[in-house]
Amino acid sequence: MIGAHTDSPTLRVKPVSKKQAEGFLQVGVETYGGGLWHTWFDRDLSVAGRVMIKTKEGQYAQRLVRIDKPILRIPTLAIHLDRQETFTFNKETQLFPIAGLIAAELNRSGQQLDPRTPDNSSTLNESPKEPFTPLKLSTERHHLYMFELIAQAAGVSSASIVDFELVLYDTQKACIGGLNDELIFSARLDNLGMGYCSTVGLINSLASPSALDEERSIRLISLFDHEEIGSETAQGANSNFLPSVIRRLSVLGPATDKETAYEQTLAASFLVSADMAHSVNPNYSYKYENDHKPEMNKGTVIKINANARYATNSPGIVLIQEVARRRKHNRTDAGGFVGSKNARFGQSAVVNAQYPRDGRS
Asked: pTM higher than 0.70, yes or no?
């Protein structure tokens, strides 16, 4: 089994995101996970996520969307107005992205500035009175043009959108870098990198038509959400999702006693927790223990912790080394959160092995 997670620290659009101040349209966001939030300033940002729609047949469905152009930016204050050496800010008031200008939106929608209202802006996007709904209409809670862009990305009309869950992302594309093209420059490597490697590894393991002819085991990957906030949700590693799947699969095998098939399966299983590790930063090398400095492109990092922060055990280390030896190179991709969260797999051989990267999230 290989376990990984799909989420990364990000900014999430608030349920009521429509904001405006000093002639600017803004979008209300909140932090998700433990990010280095100062790195989100002055970047070309957009939104992606899940949209809930109501079809013509009256059924509810979901669509995955991504607005593939920069629409947001969080501006820093000009250096002439604030010369603080340490960059600090209020996440509740100074982390709101700018989405555009009120005047431009009024021109687009054919509305007029109202000189009687504060900032000449409070009438923007006001909707006519609608029939009662349990929640405010989405078009009242979010800027209308942003709502239209989301509908366009989902391939539906604005009227069919019921709700959505959107996060911000940096539109700068991933690329190969370094003087000798030896580095990968990309956001969200933690942990889309291991999710991708796990998926491709599973697919490639079945490349041969006879790959499963004599196979008595089950090849399984499990990609969890919400690792960045503790894994305690229904989609997280600490849920009963993976154990329940394994319990149902275990009775399909040749175990003679179906009542203990699950326990027999765990005892015969090997769990690799696939994540990313922090490579040594040459500008802050004093922050690392001398004998434990992960290096870029030097192979996999196996994480061990005396207080069981990671679930690595000796059988797991021996097995992962043997796998690498048989593959004739040390490229087993693995990580460090699923094993510790799934303590119920204590009967299994477990290894938390991670691939080095730099520290930015």
From this structure: yes
